């Protein structure tokens, strides 16, 4: 079929030979110039939209500056993050600039054609609008179309600059004082909960499984109840998310949730009532080895320097309860004259009574604290410093200076409780298990003994407490063995021993609630909160660079609009509009007289055309023509380039 088209000429009436004298739709040529008649509304709207986009970018950065990321939104409705909004603004800017430069291309090209130009110049100007390579390889022919195209393509930098204009940073939140915190915790020690007495002994020999879980976690994590530990106390977590000592029949203190502390969103402090032991102590002092030459006695008597011991009083009538007696003795001594070793022996006797104790609790929410230096969990406020980065805390925060943030009250007595137990073989006990824990952790002693003229004095210690607290004066020759003292102001009963016991009993109260023993939901008092949060940061320098890029694009496009008032009709760079202006026969129609491409398409848009070979007398041509006149190009001697 294609070969027949080439070999024979088909008689087709040329389009330009057709008459349309009776076509009432044909319009005469219209050429109406003027500033207002030919004002490029699309281009102007695009320019103003670009300016509006720049203003929107500034508004986004201004509104998001120093705003917490989880507070970003309108009336508690989350909004896209600033970088997403800036990406949208950048996309809109690129679209409107493309619309503006497209109209500028058409105006500049048709003005050049109106003033008269060569086909080469017109082709080169058209190619500038579609190819950056054409601009770079034809710098000698650089014109307003090339300028507009180049400046528009450089707006790719806007996206990078706008993204650099917004970022995030971490800082402590300053609006969390008086936060609403609730706790579910036991306020009394359960009966028979901590120890087991075997045989005829009236003291506990082993921990119960429940208390063993408490002590194991305490030895592993110290004063912090770590969320990540296998027996952690849940806070804002469901039991299915953690492993616990007894996953069966766990209480649900807050409805469907099994949280034991609620309301914290960061690092929180507050006072909570829980089960504990209250220390009632009395001190007594007496001279120790005063004016006595120990070495002269030449005896093997041991002189105690330090001792801690604990025992159960199964019924203390004055307390109407089983209690624990703690005895702590320590010597402060110096080297005297003539071989003497004068000093003072202080004996501290304390009765540990069951009580409801007000603890200063510290809570750290794992989901919200992002400080790498922070620990996550629950503990007493005495350990709060372990869970917060002091360097990052502002010097002042809501009128409180930084040291005041850590001046939390010590434990306070809410009221005494009664827990009467009877010793017996193979029985469980609560006070006996606590006594076992105290003796295991803190029973200790230190003493000196004369061992003879050749060896002199010998110092003996046992347990961990004595070496931890009892120290020699390093400025004095240690051979005297007389210069022993506790650090100034250190009180064993109110430092490590009491603090550690408070932590153990606080853990016990939480585990007792978790195990289903009587507990209450209570509102914490004196609450405070500091949250190490993520905030949005705005850098207007990068925004300035992006806005400058937008303005340069507008300035680069503006020259292409020059002389728009000289054009008497709407113009585009559409191929059929240009072909019509070049008098292509296939587009011949009286509507061409108007010059408007819309009029042209309305009248000739249904004509079928095809690109291919049209046979001629001299040589076939590759043109766009009626389908009946063309054949598909084929590779061959005559078709080879």
TrEMBL record:
InterPro entries: DUF3176
Transmembrane stretches, start-end: 41-63, 84-108, 542-565
Pfam families (alphabetical): DUF3176
Keyword Transmembrane assigned: yes
Top-rank taxon, per record: Eukaryota
Record's keyword terms, sorted: Membrane, Transmembrane, Transmembrane helix
Name used for this protein in its record: Uncharacterized protein
Source organism: Cryomyces minteri
């Amino acid at each position: 079929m294609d070969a027949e088209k080439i070999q024979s000429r088909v008689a087709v009436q040329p389009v330009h030979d057709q008459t349309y004298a009776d076509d009432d739709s044909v319009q005469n040529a219209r050429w109406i110039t003027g500033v207002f008649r030919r004002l490029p509304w699309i281009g102007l709207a695009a320019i103003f939209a670009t300016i509006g986009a720049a203003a929107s970018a500034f508004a986004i950065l201004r509104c998001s500056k120093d705003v917490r990321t989880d507070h970003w939104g309108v009336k508690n409705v989350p909004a896209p993050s600033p970088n997403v909004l800036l990406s949208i603004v950048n996309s809109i800017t690129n679209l409107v600039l493309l619309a503006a430069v497209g109209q500028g291309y058409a105006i500049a090209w048709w003005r050049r054609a109106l003033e008269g130009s060569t086909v080469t110049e017109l082709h080169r100007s058209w190619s500038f609008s579609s190819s950056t390579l054409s601009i770079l390889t034809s710098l000698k022919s650089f014109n307003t179309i090339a300028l507009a195209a180049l400046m528009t393509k450089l707006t790719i930098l806007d996206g990078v600059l706008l993204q650099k204009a917004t970022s995030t940073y971490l800082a402590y939140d300053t609006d969390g004082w008086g936060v609403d915190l609730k706790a579910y915790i036991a306020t009394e020690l359960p009966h028979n909960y901590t120890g087991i007495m075997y045989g005829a002994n009236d003291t506990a020999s082993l921990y119960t499984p429940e208390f063993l879980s408490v002590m194991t976690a305490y030895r592993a994590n110290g004063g912090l109840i770590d969320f990540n530990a296998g027996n952690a106390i849940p806070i804002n977590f469901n039991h299915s998310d953690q492993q616990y000592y007894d996953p069966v029949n766990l209480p649900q203190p807050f409805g469907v949730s099994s949280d034991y502390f609620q309301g914290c969103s960061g690092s929180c402090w507050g006072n909570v009532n829980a089960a504990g032991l209250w220390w009632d102590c009395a001190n007594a002092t007496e001279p120790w080895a005063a004016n006595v030459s120990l070495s002269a006695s030449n005896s093997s008597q041991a002189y105690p320097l330090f001792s801690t011991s604990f025992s159960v009083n199964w019924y203390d009538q004055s307390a109407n309860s089983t209690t624990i007696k703690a005895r702590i003795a320590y010597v402060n001594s110096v080297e005297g004259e003539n071989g003497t070793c004068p000093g003072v022996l202080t004996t501290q006797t304390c009765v540990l009574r069951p009580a409801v104790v007000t603890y200063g609790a510290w809570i750290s929410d794992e989901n919200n604290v992002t400080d790498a230096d922070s620990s996550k969990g629950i503990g007493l406020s005495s350990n709060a410093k372990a869970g917060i980065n002091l360097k990052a805390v502002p010097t002042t925060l809501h009128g409180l200076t930084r040291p005041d943030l850590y001046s939390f009250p010590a434990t306070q007595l809410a009221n005494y409780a009664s827990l009467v137990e009877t010793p017996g073989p193979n029985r469980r006990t609560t006070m006996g298990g606590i006594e076992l824990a105290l003796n295991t952790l803190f029973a200790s002693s230190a003493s000196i003994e004369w061992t003879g003229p050749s060896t002199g004095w010998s110092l003996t210690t046992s347990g961990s407490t004595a070496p931890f607290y009892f120290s020699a004066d390093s400025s004095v020759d240690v051979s005297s063995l007389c210069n022993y003292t506790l650090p100034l102001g250190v009180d064993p009963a109110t430092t490590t021993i009491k603090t550690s016991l408070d932590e153990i009993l606080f853990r016990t109260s939480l585990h007792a609630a978790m195990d289903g023993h009587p507990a209450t939901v209570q509102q914490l008092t004196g609450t405070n909160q500091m949250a190490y949060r993520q905030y949005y940061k705005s850098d207007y320098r990068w925004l300035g660079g992006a806005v400058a890029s937008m303005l340069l694009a507008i300035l680069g496009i503006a020259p292409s609009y020059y002389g728009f008032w000289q054009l008497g009709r709407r113009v585009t760079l559409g191929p059929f509009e240009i072909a019509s202006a070049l008098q292509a026969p296939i587009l011949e129609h009286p509507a061409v007289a108007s010059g408007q491409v819309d009029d042209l398409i309305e009248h000739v848009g249904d004509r079928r055309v095809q690109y291919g070979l049209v046979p001629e007398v001299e040589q076939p041509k590759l043109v766009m023509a009626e389908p009946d006149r063309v054949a598909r190009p084929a590779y061959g001697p005559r078709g080879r380039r």
